[in-house]
Amino acid sequence: MPPSDRSGAPDLSALYQDIILDHYRRPRNSGKLDEPDERITRKNPFCGDMIELQLTFDGDRVGEARFTGQGCAISQASASMMAHLIEGKSVAELEKLAADFTRLVSEGKATGADSSLGELRAFSGVARLPNRHLCALLPWGALTEALLHHRGGVSS
């Protein structure tokens, strides 16, 4: 049961913070793949966060996703949730998901794809912290680059 505020309503900000911290402390899909089809490294020059994303593809769908990295709770939790969520999804689905997540981080609200964002909705509060947008979007930039490489047949 989520924590509640003074009125007894669920305190979503506390719940969302717990979700982010859980993914930071116990990242999902962390590690390396033996033979990735795409390997993209992204760094945030402002804070030093780093993500390496590795993907395998089965046609136009992501087969497996793994990441390694270092940095703040926001960048690492974003990578964990993203890598866990993207397996089995098509390139088109992932392009839409990346756009929806970017909008969530930038504006603080989800669009009609709210349910497809799942736990990623925990990042809605990042919209109030413009200096943290790059942290949350770092793994998504790596994903977008990997999808471009995969679509264009360009090896990374």
Descriptive keywords:
156 residues, alpha+beta, three-stranded antiparallel sheet, 3 strands, 44% helix, globular
Placed side by side, the strands forming the largest sheet appear as: 1-2-3
Provide the β-strand percentage band: 15-25%
How many individual helices? 5
What is the general shape? globular
Order of helices and strands: HEEEHHHH
pLDDT under 50 segments (min length 5)?
Answer: none
CA-atom Rg in angstroms: 15 Å
Largest sheet, in brief, is: 3 strands, antiparallel
Q: Roughly how many Å apart are the termini?
A: 44 Å
Class based on secondary structure composition and strand pairing: alpha+beta
| Total E-strand runs | 3
> Percentage of helical residues?
40-55%
Q: Provide mean pLDDT, rounded.
A: 88
